[in-house]
Amino acid sequence: MDLIAACRVLVEVGERGSVTGAAAALHVAQSVASRRILALEQHLGGPLLERTARSASLTPFARDLLPSARRLVRLADELELDAERARLRPVTIAVPSGCATRELAVVDAAGRAAGLRIEFVPAAPGRRAELAAANGVRLAVASVPAADGTWAAELGAAGRRAAGPALRIEALRASRTGRVRDGDAGARLRIGPEDDVPHVRDVLQRAGFASGLLPGQLPVDDATTAAVAAVLSDGDLLLCTEAEAAELGLHWRPFAGLALARGYVLTGQSDHDVAAVRSAVGDELAAALGAPPGGTR
Questions:
Q1: How many domains does the chain have?
Q2: Of 10, 21, 186, 268, which shows the fewest CB atoms inside 10 Å?
Q3: What is the domain range of residue 112?
Q4: For 46-82, how does the pLDDT look when each residue is reduced to its tens digit (9 = 90+)?
């Protein structure tokens, strides 16, 4: 028996003085309203209505129960209202600061089509982890080694001028004359905040030192703006994805002889939220991260 539905009929009969009026108020058939009253009588163990040919009045037993029935109906209505508000509450997702606005808008649009409202909180990897741990956001795109991630975005070098098809790290090593061997590259390959994580930064620095680069040739910048400024003013290179390079108006090329990628995984306190977002906007989110659609392990 649907206790709440039956209590709604009882409350309406008390208000309108008939089962017919109660059925009309609740937009159900009179036979349905009558069956609900009968089921409630059986459930509660006593008669609820004094029936006559033209009307139905509440029995003393029913009048004693009416205040509780009203409270139950009111609480049920409040519960449904709270559920509707909860469904409309946006899913906040901490994402990399370098995600292009248009790509995030595509994720948002795909989420709306699937009945999800999404809000983005751009942040660096460490800050995204803090927000997720403190429940500052419902979900976060966590930075992980590429082999452990749901998505992997290939990293390369971007500069202000077009260059060859690929860059070898050792080409940044200065020759005896002091000039960099790669004439299209600056002397430094800058690492931005998004890649200031051990599984990217340390791998690149080890490769650079093994190739004879000086420590100052692989600087780590606190802000992407400063890194891009050095690229534009000094001719340095920026470690980034191809999508980021296009967004910044830079010329990108992959590395030769060095496999370097960002790994990303969607995390959150609720497995349901994670599954719902990945199912609804997984491919669009991958594109915003500069990764192939469908997930890459």
A1: 3
A2: 21
A3: 89-150+262-288
A4: 999 987 766 678 999 999 999 999 999 999 999 988 8
